Amino acid sequence: MAHKHGHGHGRERIQFANAEDKQEFSKYPTKAGRRSLSRSISQSSTDSYSSAASYTDSSDDETSPRDKAQVNTHGSSDFCVKNIKQAEFGRREIEIAEQDMSALISLRKRAQGEKPLAGAKIVGCTHITAQTAVLIETLVALGAQCRWTACNIYSTQNEVAAALAETGVPVFAWKGESEDDFWWCIDRCVNTEGWQANMILDDGGDLTHWVYKKYPSVFKKARGIVEESVTGVHRLYQLSKAGKLCVPAMNVNDSVTKQKFDNLYCCRESILDGLKRTTDIMFGGKQVVVCGYGEVGKGCCTALKALGAIVCITEIDPICALQACMDGFRVVKLSEVIRQMDVVITCTGNKNVVTREQLDRMKNGCIVCNMGHSNTEIDVASLRSPELTWERVRSQVDHIIWPDGKRVVLLAEGRLLNLSCSTVPTFVLSITATTQALALIELFNAPEGRYKQDVYLLPKKMDEYVASLHLPNFDAHLTELTDEQAKYMGLNKNGPFKPNYYRY
Amino acid sequence: MAHKHGHGHGRERIQFANAEDKQEFSKYPTKAGRRSLSRSISQSSTDSYSSAASYTDSSDDETSPRDKAQVNTHGSSDFCVKNIKQAEFGRREIEIAEQDMSALISLRKRAQGEKPLAGAKIVGCTHITAQTAVLIETLVALGAQCRWTACNIYSTQNEVAAALAETGVPVFAWKGESEDDFWWCIDRCVNTEGWQANMILDDGGDLTHWVYKKYPSVFKKARGIVEESVTGVHRLYQLSKAGKLCVPAMNVNDSVTKQKFDNLYCCRESILDGLKRTTDIMFGGKQVVVCGYGEVGKGCCTALKALGAIVCITEIDPICALQACMDGFRVVKLSEVIRQMDVVITCTGNKNVVTREQLDRMKNGCIVCNMGHSNTEIDVASLRSPELTWERVRSQVDHIIWPDGKRVVLLAEGRLLNLSCSTVPTFVLSITATTQALALIELFNAPEGRYKQDVYLLPKKMDEYVASLHLPNFDAHLTELTDEQAKYMGLNKNGPFKPNYYRY
Amino acid sequence: MAHKHGHGHGRERIQFANAEDKQEFSKYPTKAGRRSLSRSISQSSTDSYSSAASYTDSSDDETSPRDKAQVNTHGSSDFCVKNIKQAEFGRREIEIAEQDMSALISLRKRAQGEKPLAGAKIVGCTHITAQTAVLIETLVALGAQCRWTACNIYSTQNEVAAALAETGVPVFAWKGESEDDFWWCIDRCVNTEGWQANMILDDGGDLTHWVYKKYPSVFKKARGIVEESVTGVHRLYQLSKAGKLCVPAMNVNDSVTKQKFDNLYCCRESILDGLKRTTDIMFGGKQVVVCGYGEVGKGCCTALKALGAIVCITEIDPICALQACMDGFRVVKLSEVIRQMDVVITCTGNKNVVTREQLDRMKNGCIVCNMGHSNTEIDVASLRSPELTWERVRSQVDHIIWPDGKRVVLLAEGRLLNLSCSTVPTFVLSITATTQALALIELFNAPEGRYKQDVYLLPKKMDEYVASLHLPNFDAHLTELTDEQAKYMGLNKNGPFKPNYYRY
Amino acid sequence: MAHKHGHGHGRERIQFANAEDKQEFSKYPTKAGRRSLSRSISQSSTDSYSSAASYTDSSDDETSPRDKAQVNTHGSSDFCVKNIKQAEFGRREIEIAEQDMSALISLRKRAQGEKPLAGAKIVGCTHITAQTAVLIETLVALGAQCRWTACNIYSTQNEVAAALAETGVPVFAWKGESEDDFWWCIDRCVNTEGWQANMILDDGGDLTHWVYKKYPSVFKKARGIVEESVTGVHRLYQLSKAGKLCVPAMNVNDSVTKQKFDNLYCCRESILDGLKRTTDIMFGGKQVVVCGYGEVGKGCCTALKALGAIVCITEIDPICALQACMDGFRVVKLSEVIRQMDVVITCTGNKNVVTREQLDRMKNGCIVCNMGHSNTEIDVASLRSPELTWERVRSQVDHIIWPDGKRVVLLAEGRLLNLSCSTVPTFVLSITATTQALALIELFNAPEGRYKQDVYLLPKKMDEYVASLHLPNFDAHLTELTDEQAKYMGLNKNGPFKPNYYRY
Prior knowledge:
- The structure is a homotetramer.
- The first copy, chain A, is 40% helix and 13% strand.
- By secondary structure, chain A is α/β, with parallel strands linked by helices.
- Chain A has two domains: 65-254 and 425-458, 3-Layer(aba) Sandwich (Rossmann fold); 267-421, NAD(P)-binding Rossmann-like Domain (Rossmann fold, 3-Layer(aba) Sandwich).
- In chain A, helix 5 runs parallel beside helix 6 and helix 12 packs antiparallel against helix 18 (426-445).
- Chain A starts with 18 loop residues before the first helix and ends in a 15-residue tail after the last helix.
- Chains in contact: A-B, A-C, A-D, B-C, B-D, C-D.
- At the A-B interface, helix 2, helix 12, helix 14, strand 9 and helix 19 of A face helix 2, helix 12, helix 14, strand 9 and helix 19 of B.
- Chains A, B, C, D: One of its GO terms (cellular component) is cytosol.
- Chains A, B, C, D: This is Adenosylhomocysteinase.
- Chains A, B, C, D: GO terms for molecular function: adenosylhomocysteinase activity.
- Chains A, B, C, D: Its cofactor is NAD(+).
């Protein structure tokens, strides 16, 4: 059962046609650092994104959705999904997701009367999952018309796409698209008679790119772009710098709630889940080195230590290193400890953090995985060499076998462990989706001139609003300032409560 | 042994002569929020700041130092301390402090050859403790001439002041100064023949204020002011706003290392120490409510939970509240839980967070204390009423007794618990002192024009340098970027490693 | 997709033929308490015990193994497994398990020269998994002859059984046996010409029972029985009490290593894994009540609190309750908190701990599961009533829907969550398997008279030896007593180090 | 300020007159192991036991209490304390203690009507502190007559002794007794006209010893002895073994509540307190080695890790070592890590655990202290040699200075840190005191024949009762078994709930 070397693992990123864009992309990491979870979602298009992705797919036919004629029960055929008949199953998945997304449901209720998105025509390009469906249906409930496509060729939950199409949202997406399918779907989404988008919700920048290239006139009437990913945000800043951004854009990637909750808290849980599902490892007493003590690294370290692992870290930044010290982690160089480690986890956003030389020195049974960005952190390419044998022992788990019999356990071929091998809690996705919805409302309703042709962060007050919508999940009760206290602190009783530079 | 009501507890703040200044001060809290540890040091001038403050004082005579003629062994009498003969004892205290301040010692060694402060004439106004002495002697070793006075009438360690005076640093300070003494000392420090300061190191802004009022010409040649406290920083921003700041000023209060380490980590340890020393409380199973989940609150909650207390929090800011939820703390309104609590801790920076009505509803034996700013958080004044009996049971511990016999245990009369009832680890003071030293070096050596008449934060690279100087304490080994990695990340191999808005 | 009510979920326990045995069984729980993990393994025979159980099964034919003629490559047909051709796959599974069972491998090496089990003829009846295979092959390496059968009709890993059969161990077991198959396999295992067992290794007591009923003469020459499960141990004590136990028996269920490690540490990890795999729940901020604060409850509480859940407990025993208080958990009655809880977990070993009335009061989305013994703790039967709708949403996950739309999420139909929905780390199984091996060696080699016809605990020194064999996994280095220290403590330098009543 | 070497640090133990007793004592440690907290209280008679011990002593006269004629306000002079006039102050201390000893108060209320100790004549020999006073006054409230003396020449709180004497309890004790005073007090306590004790409450065995030697006839009518310390319990077992025990004795030292709460939980808090009060150390990032992972070591490790220290342990027992691994601590030999450690803590109950050779290898500033038994664990004697300089820097803190300037910080001269340098929470003392009271009630009221001339553990049901009396402190609510559940579990609804061997 030797693993096939060298075969292309599908495209990790839709390639742009011209050199300029490529360059933009290749320059990306200079600014991005490690806060790159969502961008990585966009990138790792071969990851099986969700364990729920293929409930009913197994017996499906092989016909391309593009070749099928499908009609929903309302007579519409303005969609293209795998199988419209899966709608009922998908509806149930959406209902389950709604249980953990009460912030969006609450937003629906609060804003439904006034329909703040009445008149909004939104094209969206995101992962198509039950959670996204809750977002889309919220936008519709608030008055918007939506057309949707997938930002990733593998991550679509076909049943959910069917459920959306059934209720009348034109969706163009299925799991396992080809690259040609991918752009065809985007085009079908944007290019429709008698309807022109005035807002874009993007994850990764591909939709924005396509509209720029093919339908630049859309931007004349557009109220704005909301972008979630590091990659997409980076492109927008590049455009802005080059003077080519012709609508306001909202960077939701760098909002506090997204950063702190997606990275610190989400990774705190998913590192355990990802390791457990793939290796059944017992954490107690395991020697673990975590490379990078940013938010992702902090989350990983907290969880592993809490379950009895003995964790040390590597860092390049002395401030983060000092935090690690105070938090009780030894700060080491990887080479000093590599021989003793049971688990090596990368969270740096950098490349070649784990080198072949270090892989050579690992002990038998050492587990290596990546929680950082993309698949560059571990030099996996160096392992695809003739003297090493790959043995796939489980889905997402390879044993790399050295000539002397030593085995290193590589997870997800060095791609993001938590996206490949665990699930992302709906609650975290709810925070992001709520932020997106508020960004759309803000841009759509902002008075003329509040936003120019530039990239903006969500106003802190809206960050606070997103947070407040999630507090009922925890039965949390906020304290209100008295008039006297508000005056003493120089604060408005309704916030914002902190200066912009506050570090939380 | 009833507590004497109504007597003035000494001045909590040197009063300014004119209304304008008073107003500046009264406006202070509007910006300060809860990051106010050092400012509070400045304020709580009646606190017995350090347990080491009075080793040899008990049998001292009552003569005012101003009336004594003292000469050090080098023949100098340019100082005014309690008793120059205590120098040897003070020297040993300084030596002990040096053991935990290896960052400053290391800075001495690295910069000693080049004498980066040669020509600097620094007047300083800070707490005078063994740790400050290590700072002052570092400045001297780097080439500076220094004159020093105390920012607080109670916090001076007399032996340390003597040791400094013995080695030739003109020090004007003793424990238990009167208000008149306080200003006399500042004046003696600044106003000396044949010597004019060109830099100011201030903690609280009193020295700066005095120079502004009395010797404004000093600012003509001064290279800058380094200010540590929230109060002082606030005044500088006010001056800057009013166009009256005539030299560059460095705000070291808001540097990352100071904020995160002084607040989060220092409070994590001192809350336990402060409660234990005053009440011998067993933490396990105690119901505790912490008001405020900023850095100070986070530190308190972490420690208390770690030792088995059951902690809930109150918050006004939904983002901090959501963090508390994710960290495992119930978010409540104080009134909902006040009857059940064993301990109530305030960390908000606000006023009247604990009201008389809530104090009335506490259960017998409830402990109430403040880790936030100043002494406003608990409405202590409301407890000084005829129907309640105060009983001082230990130093810093009062039982307030209700007519029905209920006792509430009030610590430090609502002033800062960790400054009043515990000690601040030398290691934390080392971080602050190193930051001050680097700020002085930076301002003194900056090329013309780099800094204007404004308030600046320390450059991030220097923050990182402060951190790196403290890593050897932990035997921590930083990883260096390879050229390839630095290029990939778009970083200089020597830092800075993070954008300015990075939240750590 | 409504769940089928009322269908029998297979036998949960092989039924005995006569009333006396039944009564023994029904009396069991009176002594068992909550230290019942392994017994529950034995009981929950319908659980899909291991995620690795069915790698290659899907395309198998439907012919009963009893009707197949199979021969291994050595020409032997003294076995009955699903498909001898799966041996190679099974071998690899065994090799992977060996990596985490270095204690057994080490035991093989240490004892291989002297063959301490030479002459031992062992019949075994346990789960047949890769880990058991490592045990069996260790026994063989130490000189024993073994015949093996399964203690559970569902838990056999067919490939592993094939691998054992291929190397010459007569194995009679496959996944999905009928009750008749079950006893047929046991009989084939015991009843073979020219070979009579002199030792029994049992898990659940079924093999022991069969030998008692059918081949009592076996006990005339047997050196002893080693029993792992609470159920089996209970039966042995009953036999002993009744004067019917005619060989020495070793109770490995109550050894320290098994109790503390299987229960506390194993549950600490598996509660998270079980909840995550079934529900993708985010732990941060979840309100959880854990019923029972024994070892299992302690493990669950520790892990959940560490990941940010807010945990309270229920207890009947004031000592355990006081421990919970000191550990920072509120001690409540279930009815007081049931309305607020997000998750309810039972770990009591009792019955009807969660009643229908309490289920009625849970909030929408509440997750209910059992980590205790058997499936009695939650009154699942009360939920199988006409007014409630069951919806199976995932494997092992049912939504129970109330008429008003409220959903309660029931996991594993109230059976043991960690066995049904997570995996047991090999490391924990290694501790148990090593204990079993040592118990067999001890009984087989004990001098005449050391053990009588009674039930024994493993000598503490052997408990300590089991532990010491596992320390190299952690690169742990024991300290040795000096002669002087040993004398001072009155200890032998090689142990045992603690009195029998030591509580660890 | 060099430390005086070689001076006798007072007697660490009252010496017995004859060889037999000495031998008994010298043999003690062979059985005691590390569960020796209370014994060590008894032993370390020079420790300043409580921070509250000397509130009002400073200006006292030097006259021996034995030479004073004192009368309380009721006209009685049957007592001997430092100064009867301090009674009011002592009364307040007792009242404060009562607040945290509600279990005893509750016991008073429950049993007051029936006066279960009516007729009991109790002589007691314990530490005389506010907490003991609450116990004594409880015994009186339940009907007993009491006479009391101190088990330690330094630990008496004079004000508390005065308060007891004032209310009519004959107390013979003061702080700073000579050895002759010690025995004189015991004798005065026992030998009084017209009154003969029928019960003994002892801590350390000195009172029991005296009665055996001088007034053996007392035992003819005595109902029993209650003994708290390891030392005293050991002596009782020796007597029992030798056939010389002539009354029933209750060993409260080995009761569950005492062991688990006194050791694990009490040390969890006091290690932090002891280190902080003496050294102001910051725990974050400190490298700590804890020698011994029994209950005391577990408590220390838990707390230090929780506050960010990096902890490793040493162990001789592989089972405890494996627990340490699973709990996330590296298990090392002391010599392997000694050079890197910031703090070394002994908790083994053994001798010479830290040797001179290891002290020689420690780094500059390393802190060394003992939480185990007696003062044998660190080889302090080896440090009293000419080439090393001792410098006392604070109370209980010595710097030992090597010829090269290296300083090792030795706390409490190697005696018990938590007794010397921190306080014991009243809550923990409440558990012990309640256990003592119940043991007295049980022995006094037991029907003829229940207890023979042997040493007994408190019945588990009473352990459970002690625990239950403390639950209201935490507002903890126990769950009651239903009849059906009790039957299913084979338990009495009122307990006991666990078998005797249960490990908690």
